[in-house]
Specification:
Length: 647
């Protein structure tokens, strides 16, 4: 039978279940990646599993998120990560070497393999024909321990590309168009598989940009074929041996086919405060711009920064614009430095930031009050930039460069200058000296633990009956950035009690004290949410910190994939409303009882929620595999592992 590319790779890695869309399957993971903000907890969990070394073919620990180092916490965490990597057979990419997804694509991504990363933008690897999936840190820790990764066997959507991008239109506009077509909700359990004659017109970094931001649609991953272009890229990275040709069978059947003519696309932007609010740049022309930021794992490749450098060459950044550039990797800066473009950029007046996430995660370069900030990154959720009143627009490097020159939102096609066609280098500068291999003598390595490192908290088994209080009721599209902010708070990632103080800070700063009172009164906390609850980042702290605060259940209209898995992993049950009216009727502060929840989940029976404040009751749904039920009833994965060990 003819197969999609996704099916070919997944079937090769299948260890449990049958390849049938909708089924739960377990796959072998070849490569893992972590970044520091999710990595500390992931490695604490890995350590708790008691293994001598990782079982994956390759595991890399990147330091790219918390590189600000105000206070001792970040630096201590880096040292912890360094020693863990050395001891357990993990490569360690030092702070300064670049953003995990960019570096992984350059130096490690391999067509036909599986990659699991504790970051939602891990699908960037799909640009090189890898099945690359984002997950919570605990799932990545399990993959490092050689356990399968469980997922819903995906429905594969073919995106059939034809034509060729016009000058000043680039890969970012392609994915923004796809976001317009698919939106940020309703794509859970799908994979975007790119095919068609348009594919060969896109370079690997452009494909990576498109695959990267599929995360914003909520798909499990996105994948491009591994073709001649992929071979050229790997050859230029001196890794031609990692190449193999991979495509779908010509008559493969898809869940859906969507045609996209690249030549018809125009410059697009995602307007505040969602990557799904798409508008043509032209419609916003003339809006004054205060800040322009180029970088992030979406648009920080050599190609992207060269387009900006060439567009700005000989010009100056507009006097009212602060223009920040954060290159994706040391390799990218090295290339720009050697070909002279870095000097041009500096002459133009850019503010050169570290090769790291930086502005994208809001730990630096927060814009001014009410600012208009144009960014090449992938998320513009309220408050993510660090300035709640700021309006962040997501754009291509081309549109960013145009605004940096004119000081207003400008369709780059209106700049009236020739489009800088950037050729891919035949050879990238290769220097892996910032990637430290694991130790030859692991026994000699002592793990460093600074005062910020705590024990990963675990949960108690699910009680017979939940007697809880609605500690918060949030709207549709509540993201993990709303649940637990990153930015300047992120340095407490390895200190769960402290980090929990910032839960729901952007939406309701009183949440913590309210939830604390409820917990101390011996009742459980319950969260009520709307559509697509838990969009965005993979941070398991959006489940771990609520668990620490005594949250036992989240009732929502719908959930996103990674967050659902995280809730289950930490013993919080995700329940779905059957009707909009039930959601509307619930208020913050309502007492909710879910009688016999243990038994009912174990037996697959209908769950009834009693609102004892209102004197009403309603049914809720749950979609838990037998494995997920076992985890949730045990009080989470760590409790389950402990139980299994002690039996
Ligand atoms: C993000 O872009 O939101 C992050 C920070 O990279 C997260 C991971 C995290 O919260 O540490 C992600 O995308 O998964
Ligand atoms: Fe880093 Fe931003 Fe990419 Fe997240 S989205 S990995 S914060 S660059």
């Amino acid at each position: 039978m003819a197969k999609t590319l996704t099916q070919k790779i997944l079937e090769k890695h299948l260890v449990l279940g049958e390849y049938k869309p909708g089924n739960e399957i377990g796959i072998r993971i070849d490569q893992t990646l972590t970044q520091d903000a999710t990595g500390t907890m992931a490695y604490l969990q890995f350590e708790a599993m008691g293994l001598d070394t990782v079982k994956s073919d390759l595991s890399v620990s990147y330091v790219d998120h918390n590189t600000i180092q105000i206070g001792f916490e970040n630096a201590d965490d880096h040292r912890y990560l360094l020693t863990v990597a050395a001891k357990y057979g993990i490569y360690y990419s030092r702070a300064g070497n670049g953003i995990c997804h960019q570096v992984h694509l350059e130096r490690f991504g391999k067509p036909g393999t599986t990659l699991l990363g504790s970051d939602s933008h891990t699908p960037t690897g799909g640009g090189i024909g890898q099945i690359a999936i984002g997950a919570g840190g605990l799932d990545v820790a399990l993959a490092m321990a050689g356990e399968p990764f469980y997922l819903t066997c995906p429905r594969v959507i073919k995106i059939n590309l034809t034509g060729k991008l016009q000058p000043w239109v680039s890969a970012k506009d392609v994915i923004l168009k796809i976001l317009e077509l698919f939106t940020t909700k309703g794509n859970v359990g799908c994979v975007f598989e790119y095919a068609g004659p348009g594919v060969k017109t896109l370079t690997v970094p452009e494909r990576a940009t498109i695959a990267n931001m599929g995360a914003e649609c909520g798909v499990t991953t996105s994948i491009f074929p591994s073709d001649e272009e992929a071979r050229k890229f790997l050859k230029a990275q001196a890794r031609e041996d990692d190449w193999q040709e991979l495509t779908a069978d010509p008559d493969a059947e898809y869940f859906k086919v969507v045609d996209l003519d690249l030549s018809e696309l125009v410059p697009l932007t995602a307007t505040p405060h969602s990557p799904g609010n798409i508008s043509p740049v032209k419609d916003l022309e003339g809006t004054e711009v205060n800040q322009v930021c180029v970088g992030s794992c979406t648009n920080s490749s050599f190609r992207d920064l060269m387009v900006v450098a060439e567009t700005l060459k000989g010009k100056h950044v507009h006097p009212h614009v602060s223009f920040v550039m954060a290159p994706g990797s040391k390799q990218v800066v090295d290339m720009l430095a050697r070909n002279g473009s870095l000097a041009d950029l500096i002459e133009s007046g850019i503010r050169l930031a570290e090769n790291a996430c930086g502005f994208c995660i809001g730990n630096s370069q927060s814009p001014q009050t009410n600012a208009v900030s144009l960014r090449t990154s992938n998320r513009n959720f309220l408050g993510r930039s660090g300035t709640k009143s700021a309006n962040v627009y997501l754009v291509s490097p081309e549109t960013a460069a145009a605004a940096a020159i004119t000081g207003t939102i400008t369709d780059p096609r209106d700049l009236g200058v020739p489009y800088p066609n950037v050729d891919m280098p035949e050879k990238f500068v290769i220097d892996d000296s910032m990637i430290l291999p694991p130790s030859d003598d692991p026994d000699s390595i002592e793990i460093y633990r600074g005062p910020n490192i705590g024990e990963p908290p675990s949960n108690n088994p699910m009680p017979q009956t939940i007697n809880g209080v609605v500690a918060i009721r949030v709207d549709d599209y509540t993201t993990t950035d709303h649940i637990i902010p990153a930015g300047s708070r992120m340095k407490y990632r390895s200190n769960v009690p402290k980090y929990s103080e910032f839960l729901f800070e952007v939406v309701d700063p009183d949440f913590y004290s309210r939830a604390k009172d409820i917990k101390e009164s011996g009742r459980q906390n319950i969260i009520v949410g709307g559509i697509s609850y838990g969009q965005g980042s993979s941070r398991e702290h959006a489940a771990l910190c609520p668990m620490y605060m005594g949250v036992r259940a989240v009732l929502a209209k719908s959930f996103e994939r990674i967050h659902t898995a995280n809730l289950i992993n930490f013993g919080i049950v995700p329940l779905t409303f059957k009707s909009e009216a039930d959601f509307d009727a619930i208020e913050q502060g309502d007492n909710l009882e879910i009688p016999n929840i243990r038994e009912k989940i174990a037996n697959g029976e209908t769950l009834v929620v009693k609102d004892t404040t209102k004197g009403t009751e309603f049914e809720v749904e749950y979609d838990l595999s037998d494995r997920a039920k076992e985890i949730v009833l045990a009080g989470g994965m760590l409790s389950l592992i402990k139980n299994k060990k002690s039996n």
